[in-house]
């Protein structure tokens, strides 16, 4: 049953159904004013609130002129936000008319629980920032009827999972409907003549529509109805069907949405991790049905595709058996007009080190996208090494995977008290722009905030966290079976004047939840130090199928249950967005101790930093990129090849204890006149001033627009059907002819080179004889590659120089290329030459994965080493 609002209160419904309320304090305050007790009971969910407000209260509000003025102002503000020009609309022409953004999970708000961890929160922040910037994004995901699991603990501390059933009609969603009012549906063909049908639900994330596909359709067979039952539930065929629905069904949902609403069709398709990779196959099918051959369709699809990998290890990628995929894309399955072998070759691990019978979703994503990125500078390096097999012959640094470091949506994660302090300092409008659009290198206005104001803010946030922890801990112990008489001790848990450390995230083994327990006696001494005590708040969920992760949770819980330390260290079950929004601001230090380099980016420390919390972390992910000792601490890593796992963990735990004992705690408790820790407060200022602008999702989305979306849209427009056919035919011709391409001879001439040495700044003239077979010089680029020589005699930090063809081919068909090579660096210096395919429509020299290098028979001149 939906509430019937008085006419004057109807704008409340619109405000409740646009999720902008989740990051707009004034709108949340308006809903709180409707019924403060009801707002708390509804856990800050406006729809639940409106469904429970007594009619008498609504009638009173309908006559309350002051409330109606506030309501009108909030409604007008939302209208201006949705229709006004924003950052994107002020950019030069040429950006995409629309971008479709696909992700298996979206963390927008706790009121729409469709996320499990960092990937989903990142996707939600991406949508919110796109909305703030005016980027015409369409989000695409699945609607999981049970969402992700809710976590509780048994009396023994073992994780227990609960899957509450979510009714879409009680969520901030609306069904996409046809003009006659019937629900829109998309359908996928399954083997044996079956179908997988899905409704399309729409959430409004500010200016951005989020489309969520739901297989709980009456016409589906029971197995098909359960495809969207749980986030990351099941495996094998169940997971494959989820990913087919997300990718193929998602494209069909976007087409339906654009047809019904008039929204511009996307020019760019962004795949957030490999789960949605099948979207590229659906786009190929669309072109094939319009008369384009497969290879040309593939080129067109690749041009407008962006693929983001979040995975630093091969084990984190979804892979399916070849026969399972073949069955679902065979003659009786999906995409019947496309040869199943062409589908398979896009995903099979046919590269060195791969398993040829496995279909790899990340490999398909990379093969279907002309542009790809990791999510931090370090993760970009890891990704280039991990996927180098897809580009044989190229060094890892030339693999075409760039990086865009993640960011977080500040209006979502910054505490209202921090926002108000910023607004008082620089004005509300400037503060909002600083947090959403970004663009400045530093927030120097932070320097003008007094020490007393900073410290008062930090203590207020810490005090709020203490209250939150006690309430959640009491609820957790009641779920574990404790009675009221057993729980008096909770009133003394944590102290708002004690150094508070936070650690909250998923619990895979590489994040090392229990590293802090390696030396329990030493940890206990830190917690109970008579002058410089420490308190720790921990939260995290292990995957339901991960018993090793559950054992880690239980190990930590048992330690926190110890009466000697339970007032100083707590574990809070059911970590989610609502908890996180209290946890990040209330901590003084955010702890992160993964195995380096397995944290692709990690954004929890970014959210903490925006609230003035200092980071204490292993140099991994974003911290490796932006760490400075002015505003945090780096935990040394024991990453030598001879260090076994136990010794590594012992060494890194000892380094953590040393930092806490000798540097972190002393600085927090070092009080000057007036009782203020001046050096600590200065670190807080530097965190806000220096890290603040960097960690914004607004910065991240602007980078995607400028570096990936814009170029992808230009490439998509350039690949009209005729150009796509031309490029596909050229690639076929080059691949067929490439075995005949060779570097035959390299000659270097320099008057200043003697006995393998040369002077800095001198020039070497290169003459290279090559065979091109049936190719023309216009089909290739001949390059000199020069750089420093490492201890293994490999080139590093290389620079490339194109060589130019001279004259007509010789009688034997060979061609001569020449060019100067400047010796521009001292020390060991080397060079080689190579031949690459070249075409105006290629995104980069490595795109085709073809390169010809000199053979050993070519002679020493092909790779001279100058020391």
UniProtKB/TrEMBL annotation:
It is an enzyme of class 2 (transferase). InterPro entries: Agluc_phsphrylas, Glyco_trans_35, Glycogen/Maltodextrin_Phosph, Glycogen_phosphorylase_DUF3417, Pyridoxal_P_attach_site. PROSITE patterns: PHOSPHORYLASE. The lineage of its organism: Bacteria, Bacillati, Actinomycetota, Actinomycetes, Kitasatosporales. It catalyses: [(1->4)-alpha-D-glucosyl](n) + phosphate = [(1->4)-alpha-D-glucosyl](n-1) + alpha-D-glucose 1-phosphate. Its EC number is 2.4.1.1. This is glycogen phosphorylase. Belongs to the glycogen phosphorylase family. Residues 5-112 form the DUF3417 domain. Keywords: Allosteric enzyme, Carbohydrate metabolism, Glycosyltransferase, Pyridoxal phosphate, Transferase. The keyword Transmembrane helix does not apply.
